[in-house]
């Protein structure tokens, strides 16, 4: 007849209860409803500011004079130079010192050449310039890895070490021939690497046994459904445009309370854009490319949303870049005698350089906001890891993501507006 026993309330941490799916659904519904109200209020107050038809026509207008596309095609020249240098080094007709110098010049040209073209050719739009520079940055990182791995292969060959068995095991299950150095120095091998969803070169990548048609179809449907995502992105931009426009006067007057209000209002739509981009690119796009190319390693991200430290976030939200930094930058610095703290700082500063490169060059102005934002992650990472743990650390990471990016956006938009429109 007993109906009571010793037990904790479900919301107590000591109860061991963890099924909060209904609460999560409630949060999603509340988020949708609140954002829908804000969007309707914005539409009623300002009208249509971002016309989807005009945006589509902008990309379809005069496609044969797209300077950014031509710039991307020219990148093949630098790829051919890197392959030719490696072939000469493999033959022994080029010394290691001279080969390293020529590789360095080629890599520097990959970064400097497109930047110079963006400044010279006035018809390149900022959006097209960002796309072209992103492609060149990816090629720079890939060819850097290509050069390093082939150098390691020459060193192993000089030491008469046998070929590693791991490649044979990774590919033997699907009946692929194991490639050894220097047989890997072919157009087919290099261009497979250039299109593969990775930045780290290997002579023998892990391969999936077949193309899973149902998996590929699901990912393609996700990409196609991004048509809705693009429309949603336009809605978010519709939300952001008046917020950014209304931010100019507070910046001119240095009205800090109004600046903070504009910043908080911009934070939510900016964060939605970032989340849409993350899922579209890192999950849908990279999985489609990997499935078509039968590329076996699909770890493009880890559980960064559970990050309890800033360092954990940067190590897990973009695995291809993290692997490249770890393999070709962080570990070599440690090998050369640098401390772990110095190596981590160098990685953050290098990342800051590329962030600034991809923003300042297309906008044709140098303000270093992106660089300083990334550099600020160094003391922020120390503070969070030193004073915050668990959920508090995770909340700090989310706040830095939601608030940090809008600060840089407002800074760049303000400076771009002052530079191009205020005097007109």
UniProtKB/TrEMBL annotation:
The active site is at residue 355. It is found in: Endoplasmic reticulum membrane. Its EC number is 2.3.1.20, 2.3.1.76. Pathway: Lipid metabolism; glycerolipid metabolism. The keyword Lipid metabolism does not apply. Keywords: Acyltransferase, Endoplasmic reticulum, Membrane, Transferase, Transmembrane, Transmembrane helix. The chain crosses the membrane at residues 23-44, 64-85, 97-121, 127-146, 220-241, 272-290, 341-360, 366-384, 396-414. Homodimer or homotetramer; both forms have similar enzymatic activities. This is Diacylglycerol O-acyltransferase 1. It comes from Tricholaema leucomelas.
């Amino acid at each position: 007849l007993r109906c009571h026993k010793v037990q904790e309330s479900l919301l107590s941490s000591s109860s061991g209860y963890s099924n909060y799916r209904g609460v999560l659904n409630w949060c999603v519904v509340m988020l949708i409803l609140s954002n829908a109200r804000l969007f309707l209020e914005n539409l009623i107050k300002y009208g249509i500011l971002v016309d989807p038809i005009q945006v589509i026509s902008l990309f379809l207008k005069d496609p044969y004079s797209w300077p950014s596309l031509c710039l991307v095609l020219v990148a093949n020249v630098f790829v051919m130079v890197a392959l030719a240098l490696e072939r000469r080094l493999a033959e022994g007709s080029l010394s290691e010192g001279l080969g390293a110098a020529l590789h360095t010049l080629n890599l520097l040209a990959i970064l400097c050449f497109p930047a110079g073209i963006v400044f010279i050719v006035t018809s390149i739009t900022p959006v097209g310039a960002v796309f072209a520079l992103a492609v060149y940055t990816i090629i720079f990182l890939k060819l850097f890895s290509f050069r390093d791995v082939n150098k390691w292969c020459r060193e192993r060959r000089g030491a008469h070490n046998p070929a590693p068995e791991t490649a044979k095991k990774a590919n033997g299950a699907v009946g692929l021939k194991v490639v050894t150095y220097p047989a890997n120095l072919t157009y087919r091998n290099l261009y497979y690497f250039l299109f593969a969803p990775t930045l780290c070169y290997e002579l023998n990548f892990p391969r999936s046994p077949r193309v899973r048609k149902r998996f590929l179809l699901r990912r393609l449907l996700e990409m196609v459904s991004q048509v809705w995502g693009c429309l949603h992105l336009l809605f978010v931009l519709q939300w952001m445009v008046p917020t950014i426009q209304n931010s100019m006067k507070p910046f001119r007057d240095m009205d800090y309370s109004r600046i903070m209000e504009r910043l908080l209002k911009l934070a939510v739509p900016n964060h939605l854009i970032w989340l849409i981009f993350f899922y579209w690119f890192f999950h849908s796009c990279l999985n489609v490319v990997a499935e078509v190319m039968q590329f076996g390693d699909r770890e493009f991200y880890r559980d960064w949303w559970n990050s309890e430290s800033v360092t954990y976030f940067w190590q897990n939200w973009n695995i291809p870049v993290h692997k490249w930094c770890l393999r070709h930058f962080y570990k070599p610095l440690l090998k050369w005698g640098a401390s772990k703290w110095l190596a981590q700082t160098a990685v953050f500063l290098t990342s800051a350089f590329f962030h600034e490169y991809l923003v300042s060059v297309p906008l044709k102005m140098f303000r270093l906001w992106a660089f300083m934002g990334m550099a600020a992650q160094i003391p922020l990472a120390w503070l969070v890891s030193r004073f915050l743990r668990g959920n508090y650390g995770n909340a700090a990471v989310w706040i830095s993501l939601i608030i940090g990016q809008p600060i840089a956006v407002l800074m760049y938009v303000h400076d771009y507006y002052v530079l191009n429109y205020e005097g007109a």
